């Protein structure tokens, strides 16, 4: 969380920083700030502008930094310590030192007390400001900036990334990274630093991904990298070979709506890499390995992946939020079809609960951004236990893919809306591919079954496109139920993760109370909440089978207690339709375990229109950020 950009070169720094920050606003939008160096006579002074709220709020102060400068740093904040006001916004200053920070200084209490005892005057409530004073103290001992930052860095605990400048040393930035992402961009007569590549991709494609516990001294001519002990690191850059997707709203009122309606394309781009439609076969030869140290991306063979997963004593799926819901779905279908013991859990729990991990187990993490701190920590934990770890990820070359043995990229395209939509359905689609490939390789399904499954996946983008044609009809339904007191999403089996996801989406963008439950759990507590003012959203689009009839019985129990029922069901499910006040038809599929993907779509639209009804900030809901790089 928090986005950082720094520039040193020959061009107007302020505009470059502003444009870079605009590409990083997904990392936080509580406040923003820019510091630029101004030449006044022979000396340089630092001018800082900052404002609470979105990046555009900075424009009202632009006049204060509207001077020629070729050296500046900027920040967009997701508040951790101290409320989101102007004082707590970055950059922070300590006399000649100015810095921006992403992360958390865990021992900030001790450092604050120590500084206050020394008589240091602090201005903000942030942990970040403290670091400036630690650097300043080292500078006052006569040390160079790089050495001063290195020594200050050794005094703090926790995941952090810093960019530091000192007006007494114009033209030199020092950056440090441990646990929070930071990339150095190398140009001709200019250099950059940023939390993420898109911030600087318009200016350079030559990137060095700083490793944990590395620092760099950056001037316009040179970049020097050292480790925590001060030893010079010879580093290898990579050339970025991908382009930024269009991040235009294309006429839609919100990115979220655009991204919901983009799912047919996202599914098609994702699935085309993994299906041999001509032969009705799954193929896993599009997974890549992209280690930052080697700079090489190489293809992993289908057979190697099959072997790694088939031999696994356990597949541990680990993720956060929406990605975890995709993982809960993935665990069900991997175990059911490929007969591989699989468990799925939340990364924030997994990393601290001391799980028993064997080197014969396999890890599979899921992440849209590839930066989520808890998921990244889970990867490292599994690697430390000698496990092979794979990722399903959307953002190329982000931190998680670079730590994993191979990556299954989702190809959903850039997801701008904070609420994840197309990432979720493409993650589920990839789990389906993996389950299909493994069950086929292990002989758990026949060639005919594989063909049906592959063809069904192949048609999925088209079915989705058709299903979304009437998307605006969901708006009336959202309007009808917008004032309900609470929302209970019910689903069983593969629809349980969809229920969890439906509730999460509604909470995060419409700010209403919503719960996702397994329908089978209803009478173990939540049924007490059922009353006419509670909308129960029942997800049961598979019109037959034992689990379906059990689900319908659970839904009948809601009806018997005068709950208001909105159901997602099969076109011909007369029974479910009869008991529901509102009924949304879900088309049938020849491979029914893909129905959760279709069932997700009306729920995304329902949340979206509920949020529109409530007038919330749909694309940037309060208190959230797109990339959660702190735990
Ligand atoms: C919800 C949402 C979050 C993310 C979670 C994990 O709409 O977007 O719950 O799913 O923060 O993020 P990634 O997938 O980037 O690891």
Q: What features would you describe in this structure?
A:
The chain has 631 residues and is of the alpha/beta class. The chain contains 18 helices and 29 strands. A hairpin with a 4-residue loop joins strand 9 and strand 10 (191-194). Helix 6 packs parallel to helix 12 (422-441), helix 6 (263-271) packs antiparallel against helix 13 and helix 12 runs antiparallel to helix 13 (447-467).
Which structural traits does this protein have?
631 residues, seven-stranded antiparallel beta sheet, 18 helices, 29 strands, globular, binds fructose -6-phosphate
Task: Reconstruct the topology from this structure.
Layout (H helix, E strand, L loop, with lengths): L2 E6 L4 H10 L8 E10 L2 E10 L18 E7 L14 E3 L2 E7 L4 H10 L10 H13 L4 H9 L6 E7 L6 E6 L4 E4 L4 E4 L11 E4 L4 E5 L4 E5 L4 E2 L4 E2 L15 H7 L1 H9 L3 E2 L4 E2 L5 E3 L6 E3 L2 H9 L4 E5 L1 H18 L3 E5 H4 L11 E6 L5 H12 L3 E6 L5 H5 L2 E4 L12 H20 L5 H21 L5 H9 L4 E6 L4 H15 L3 E5 L15 E7 L5 H15 L3 E7 L3 H6 L2 E5 L8 H20 L17
Helix pairs in contact: 3-4, 6-12, 6-13, 8-12, 8-15, 12-13, 14-18, 15-18
The structure holds fructose -6-phosphate (F6R).
Fructose -6-phosphate (F6R) binds next to α8 and α15.
């Amino acid at each position: 969380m928090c986005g950082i950009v720094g520039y040193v070169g020959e061009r107007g720094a302020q505009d470059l920083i502003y444009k870079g920050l605009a590409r990083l606003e997904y990392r936080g939008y509580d406040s923003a700030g820019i510091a630029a160096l101004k030449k006044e006579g022979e000396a340089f002074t630092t001018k800082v502008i900052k404002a609470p709220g979105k990046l555009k709020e900075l424009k009202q102060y632009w006049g204060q930094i509207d001077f020629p400068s070729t050296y500046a740093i900027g920040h967009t904040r997701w508040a951790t310590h101290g409320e989101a006001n102007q004082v707590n916004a970055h950059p922070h200053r300590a006399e000649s030192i100015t810095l921006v920070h992403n992360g958390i200084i865990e021992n900030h209490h001790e450092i604050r007390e120590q500084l206050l005892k020394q008589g240091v005057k602090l201005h903000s409530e942030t942990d970040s400001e403290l670091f400036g004073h630690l650097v300043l103290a080292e500078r006052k001992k006569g040390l160079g900036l790089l050495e001063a930052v290195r020594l200050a860095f050794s005094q703090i605990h926790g995941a952090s990334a810093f960019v530091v400048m000192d007006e007494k040393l114009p033209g030199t930035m020092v950056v440090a990274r441990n646990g929070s992402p930071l990339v150095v961009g190398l140009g001709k007569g200019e250099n950059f630093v940023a939390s993420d590549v898109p911030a600087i991709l318009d200016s350079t494609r030559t990137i060095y991904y700083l490793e944990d516990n590395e620092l760099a001294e950056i001037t316009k001519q040179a970049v020097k990298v050292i480790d925590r002990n001060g030893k010079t690191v010879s580093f290898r850059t990579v050339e970025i070979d991908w382009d930024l997707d269009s991040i235009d709203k294309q006429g839609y009122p919100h990115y979220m709506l655009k991204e919901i309606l983009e799912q047919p394309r996202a599914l098609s781009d994702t699935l085309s890499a993994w299906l041999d439609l001509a032969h009705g076969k799954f193929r896993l030869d599009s997974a890549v390995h992209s280690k930052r140290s080697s700079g090489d991306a190489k293809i992993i063979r289908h057979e190697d992946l099959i072997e790694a997963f088939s031999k696994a004593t356990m597949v541990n799926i680990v993720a956060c939020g929406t990605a975890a819901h995709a993982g809960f779905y993935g665990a069900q279908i991997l175990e059911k079809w490929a007969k591989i013991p699989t468990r799925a859990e939340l990364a924030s729990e997994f990393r601290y609960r001391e799980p028993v991990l064997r080197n014969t187990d396999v890890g599979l993490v899921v992440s849209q951004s590839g930066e989520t701190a808890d998921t990244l920590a889970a990867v490292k934990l599994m690697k430390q236990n000698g496990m092979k770890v794979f990722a399903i990820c959307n953002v190329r070359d982000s931190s998680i893919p670079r730590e994993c043995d191979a990556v299954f990229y989702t190809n959903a395209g850039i997801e701008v809306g904070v609420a994840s939509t197309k990432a979720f359905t493409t993650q589920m689609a990839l789990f389906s591919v993996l389950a299909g490939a493994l069950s086929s390789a292990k002989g758990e399904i026949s060639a005919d079954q594989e063909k049906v499954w592959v063809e069904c996946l192949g048609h999925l983008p088209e079915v989705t496109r058709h299903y979304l044609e009437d998307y605006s009809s969901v708006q009336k339904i959202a309007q009808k139920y917008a004032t309900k007191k609470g929302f209970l999403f019910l689903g069983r089996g593969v629809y349980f993760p969809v229920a969890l996801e439906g509730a999460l989406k509604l909470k995060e963008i419409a700010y209403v109370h919503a719960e996702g439950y397994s329908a089978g759990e209803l009478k173990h507590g939540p049924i007490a909440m059922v009353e006419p003012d509670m909308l129960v959203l029942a997800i049961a689009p598979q019109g037959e089978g034992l689990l379906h009839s059990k689900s319908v019985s659970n839904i009948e129990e809601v009806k018997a207690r005068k709950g208001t029922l909105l159901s997602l069901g099969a076109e011909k499910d007369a029974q479910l339709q009869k008991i529901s006040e509102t009924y949304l038809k879900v088309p049938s599929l020849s491979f029914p375990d893909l129905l959760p993907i279709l069932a997700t779509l009306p729920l995304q639209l329902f949340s979206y229109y509920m949020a529109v009804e409530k007038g919330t900030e749909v694309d940037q809901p309060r208190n959230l950020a797109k990339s959660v790089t702190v735990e």
